[in-house]
Amino acid sequence: MSENGAMDKMKGRGKEAVGKLTGDRRKEAEGKADQAKGGAKDAAGGVGERAKGVKDSLRRDDDK
């Protein structure tokens, strides 16, 4: 999990909770959007790490 993704998720959970407590649908929706953004950042980071792993494994095979 990326730090930025985790921060967006945490911020989003807070906004969503405040929105629910106060009845502010817009704040609640912003919180959900922030959480989705954090999830997307985590997913994008995971793809980058997997691609790097594949690249490294192909390099090792070339060295043989």
Short description, anyone?
The protein is an all-alpha fold.
Commentary on this structure:
This protein has 64 residues and is mostly helical. Helices cover 91% and strands 0% of the residues. It is built from two helices and no strands. Helix 1 runs antiparallel to helix 2. The longest helix is centred in the last third of the chain and has 38 residues. The chain is rod-shaped. The chain starts with a helix and ends with a helix. The mean pLDDT is 85.
| Gyration radius, rounded | 18 Å
End-to-end C-alpha gap: 33 Å
Helix count equals: 2
Shape: rod-shaped
Strand content: under 5%
Helix content class: over 70%
Mean pLDDT across the residues is 85
Order of helices and strands: HH
Assign the structural class, choosing from mainly alpha, mainly beta, alpha/beta, alpha+beta, or little secondary structure: mainly alpha
Oligomer: single chain
- Major sheet characteristics: none
Low-pLDDT runs of 5+ residues are none
Would you count the extended β strands for me?
Answer: 0
